Amino acid sequence: MPTIADVAKAAGVSKAAVSRVVGGKRSTTGVSAATQQRILNVAQELGYVPNPLAVALSTGRTYNIGLLVASPLAFLTHPNGALQYGAFVQAAGEMGYRIAIVWPDARRRLENRMIDGCIVYGVVSPALVEKMATLARQVPVVTTDRIPGATQIVVEGQADKGFRMAAEYLYKLGHRDIVTVEITTIPERQARASFEALAKEQGLDVRLRTLVDHWEARPYPSVEEIAHLRPLPTAIYAFDDGYARALIARLTREGVRVPEDVSVFSRETHAKGDGIVPGLTGVDWHFERLSVDFVHQLIELIERKERTDKVSVKPAEIELVIQDSCAPPRGG
């Protein structure tokens, strides 16, 4: 590996000059613009990579961004969570930063010296909110939750539109006996309310049943409830791809085919699919684009060294993804 001495010799400058230029303090080096560019060109040609620990010591910056979610293992092994994590990493990398997972342990001190800022994604426990409030006094923190001192990212909602999109699609296929499975963090049962409202508007006679589960549970208790329902509904509205896959696997063990015997609609899927058969029909919220927005907002706060209470973000337009997991009910 080339050293700082190699770069200095090839560029015809001192090691101190190289250190200041490649260490992130180019605007205050006292080195001319032409010399700075020559040093950078030589460093690139030689493949010189500054020691990140040395850069952190000289600049006070780690170029690490913390990412805290309530359940890291569930998030990273979830099909949608993995997609979003990839978007976090790519967006940060393109701006010269790295993503570091912050373990959600309320009993441990969050080390602010290892990160320049932190993204809190999703809902976290009250104990963690208190810890993150302490961290937010030391480094910028962005979150969708309410954390004192942090910048709240307000996502302009399209939830009602997504629920209605699902109801319209399943009703159009002819389904009238539907189970909606919703998550505990949406206590209003918004999906069922949308299904009920649209049925009333269209004068449809429908049977709706609702189950509630935790997105990170796996195995999901309500999957067993559905597997033993008799008669089965003709369609099931699952709250995300992870749940939909677990449900399809369980139904298969009972000899129930998807979509021949029952349709499964995923509230959160993605148009790219995951290569598993059957492909899931559902709503793509393009959450990976939202991940990019979070990274950009946090880096802007870090580099501007300014704080703000709230930032509004407009998400990408949601999209109905039609694949193989839904079909008209048998005999319908």
Give me the number of helical elements: 12
Structural class: alpha/beta
CATH H-level superfamily of the largest domain: Response regulator
**Gross morphology:** elongated
Poorly predicted ranges: none
The chain-level mean pLDDT equals 87
Number of structurally distinct domains: 3
Beta strands, count: 12
| Cα radius of gyration in angstroms | 25 Å
Helix content: 40-55%
Distance between the termini: 69 Å
Question: What is the annotated CATH architecture of the largest domain?
Answer: 3-Layer(aba) Sandwich
* Major beta sheet summary: 6 strands, parallel
Strand content: 15-25%
Q: Please list the strands of the largest sheet in the order they lie side by side.
A: 2-1-3-4-5-11
The ordered string of helix (H) and strand (E) elements is HHHHEHHEEHEEHEHEHEHEEHEE
CATH-assigned fold name of the largest domain: Rossmann fold
CATH C-level class of the largest domain: Alpha Beta
What does this structure look like?
- The protein has 332 residues and is α/β, with parallel strands linked by helices.
- The protein has three domains: 4-59, 434 Repressor (Amino-terminal Domain) (Orthogonal Bundle); 64-157 and 288-313, Response regulator (Rossmann fold); 159-285, Response regulator (Rossmann fold, 3-Layer(aba) Sandwich), CATH 3.40.50.2300.
- Helices cover 41% and strands 17% of the residues.
- It is built from twelve helices and twelve strands.
- The protein has helices spanning 4-11, 15-22, 33-46, 52-59, 72-77, 79-94, 126-136, 159-173, 190-202, 221-227, 241-253, 287-304, and strands at 64-68, 98-101, 117-120, 141-143, 151-155, 177-183, 207-213, 235-238, 263-269, 281-284, 310-313, 319-321.
- The protein has a six-stranded parallel sheet with strand order 2-1-3-4-5-11, sandwiched between helices. The chain has a six-stranded mixed sheet with strand order 7-6-8-9-10-12, with helices on both faces.
- β3, α7 and β4 form a beta-alpha-beta unit.
- α6 packs parallel to α12, α8 (159-173) packs across α9 (190-202) and α10 packs across α11 (241-253).
- The longest helix has 18 residues, at 287-304.
- The chain is elongated.
- The mean pLDDT is 87.
